């Protein structure tokens, strides 16, 4: 049996969880080890396991796999075999449960393999969750929302603080906080982040806009007009500057519920605080403030000026 040397690129968190000291000082195994039942397999061993005996990991954070990439990997496995083993844990039923490597596992099934090389670990449910999340965060290209959800699950289900989470995944607290804040955005914006219609930079700028309607308006502008991250940051700063101005203590005369709603809708459209003044005779004015020439140009563009 060919020995497999563990790679060092998995990150300190995963290595610590696996606690897998390789057999550098262990006695050599015989070239042909005696056949043993699954229950008797030693910890941290490697062997060939029937794919039919492996269950997928219920803690897997990745919900989508690129089908083109999956089929390409499947073809590679069909021709050259699976080079990097998956990692499983032994179950009381004699079956195995996937800890990491679901993409490889799926591709191997597509390639028609009956058996797959696997590391066998022993892990409780919390360790299973941590290992699956860390392995995916560090080794897969999760989208930003999947990463944020993974961080949230680790904190909630493993009772971790941000500092502890950062140590496990090798990221500083600011990075952790920025990802978690994405989950406070409206669902429509989260979907756009997930589908990579807007970038992490766009999302971070939108977080600084307190008003949900303004967030949604700017979000739609990003989609429709391809606004740059810098432009969105400028819009967010403009809105923030207007919010810092003292609020009028007196309601304009004749402002009914319908006028209030109209004023709110206009503010959402122009992403700035709009004043609608209406007199008792029905006459009035609309004021659209701006904070810079660029901001004025943006408003005029919305007015098709």
Number of helical segments? 13
The CATH top-level class label of the largest domain = Alpha Beta
Report the major sheet. Answer: 5 strands, mixed
How many domains comprise the coordinates?
3
Biased composition (Low complexity): 29-39
Keywords: Chromosome partition, DNA-binding
Family: Belongs to the ParB family.
Domain ParB-like N-terminal: 47-137
Topology:
Blueprint: H1 12-18, E1 45-50, E2 54-55, H2 67-80, E3 86-90, E4 96-100, H3 102-110, E5 115-121, H4 125-139, H5 144-157, H6 162-169, H7 173-181, H8 187-194, H9 200-207, H10 212-225, H11 229-243, H12 257-270, E6 275-278, E7 284-287, H13 293-302
Parallel strand pairs: 2-4, 3-5
Antiparallel strand pairs: 1-5, 3-4, 6-7
Helix pairs in contact: 1-4, 2-3, 4-5, 5-7, 9-11, 10-12
Would you kindly provide a written description of the structure presented here, covering whatever features stand out?
This protein is an alpha/beta fold. It folds into three domains: 12-23 and 40-130, Conserved hypothetical protein from pyrococcus furiosus pfu- 392566-001, ParB domain, CATH 3.90.1530; 141-242, Arc Repressor Mutant, subunit A; 248-302, no CATH class. Helices cover 48% and strands 11% of the residues. The chain is built from 13 helices and seven strands. The strands form two sheets. It has a five-stranded mixed beta sheet. Strands 6-7 form a two-stranded antiparallel ribbon. Helix 1 (12-18) packs antiparallel against helix 4 (125-139).
Comma- or semicolon-separated keywords:
305 residues; alpha/beta; Conserved hypothetical protein from pyrococcus furiosus pfu- 392566-001, ParB domain; Arc Repressor Mutant, subunit A; two-stranded antiparallel sheet; 13 helices; 7 strands; 48% helix; 11% strand; elongated
């Amino acid at each position: 049996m060919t020995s497999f040397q563990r790679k060092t690129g998995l990150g300190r968190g995963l290595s610590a969880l696996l606690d897998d000291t390789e057999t550098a000082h262990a006695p050599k195994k015989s070239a042909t080890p005696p056949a043993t039942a699954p229950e008797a397999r030693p910890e941290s061993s490697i062997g060939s396991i029937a794919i039919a005996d492996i269950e997928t990991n219920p803690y897997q954070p990745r919900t989508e796999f690129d089908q083109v990439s999956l089929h390409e990997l499947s073809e590679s496995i069909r021709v050259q075999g699976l080079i990097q083993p998956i990692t499983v844990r032994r179950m009381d039923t004699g079956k195995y449960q996937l800890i990491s490597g679901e993409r490889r596992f799926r591709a191997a099934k597509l390639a028609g393999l009956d058996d797959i090389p696997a590391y066998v670990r022993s892990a409780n449910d919390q360790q299973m969750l941590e290992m699956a999340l860390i392995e995916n965060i560090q080794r897969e290209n999760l989208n930003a929302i999947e990463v944020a959800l993974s961080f949230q699950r680790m904190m909630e289900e493993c009772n971790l603080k941000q500092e502890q989470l950062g140590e496990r995944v090798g990221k500083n607290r600011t990075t952790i906080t920025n990802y978690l804040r994405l989950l406070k955005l409206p669902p429509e914006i989260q979907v756009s982040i997930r589908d990579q219609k807007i970038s992490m930079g766009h999302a971070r700028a939108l977080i600084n806009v307190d008003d949900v309607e303004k967030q949604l308006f700017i979000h739609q502008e990003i989609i429709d007009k391809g606004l740059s991250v810098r432009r969105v940051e400028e819009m967010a700063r403009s809105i923030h500057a207007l919010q810092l101005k003292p609020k009028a203590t007196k309601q304009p005369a004749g402002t009914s519920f319908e006028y209030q709603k109209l004023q709110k809708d206009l503010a959402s459209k122009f992403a700035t605080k709009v004043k609608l003044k209406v007199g008792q005779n029905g006459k009035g004015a609309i004021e659209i403030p701006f904070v810079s020439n660029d901001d004025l140009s943006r408003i005029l563009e919305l007015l098709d000026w």
